[in-house]
Amino acid sequence: MSKISILVNDCAQEGLGLAVEHGFSLLIENQGRRILFDTGQTEALKVNAEKMGVDLAKLDAIILSHGHYDHTGGLPDCPANVPLYCHKNALDT
Questions:
Q1: From CA 62, how far away is CA 80, in angstroms rounded?
Q2: pLDDT digit string (tens) for 59-85?
Q3: What share of the chain is helix, strand, coil (3-state, %, to 5)?
Q4: Coil, strand or helix: which one is 37?
């Protein structure tokens, strides 16, 4: 069974206490694999992952759709040993 969870977005269901920001991040779970698609803008990824019971240390891969700050800003809170897939120039400043 596949599951997609929104970890970072500019809106959140009230009452959950999730961080909201201009940014985006999804957790895709499929066939036992856990793939993070984008990382949001700030530490909201880490905050929301903890509140949602998502262990970022158990990721199998990180995919960045593109290099804008609101999709890559949460990278510092991701484990360094997880494979990162992105365009070769995505993180150029």
A1: 10
A2: 999 999 999 999 999 999 999 999 999
A3: 20, 25, 55
A4: strand
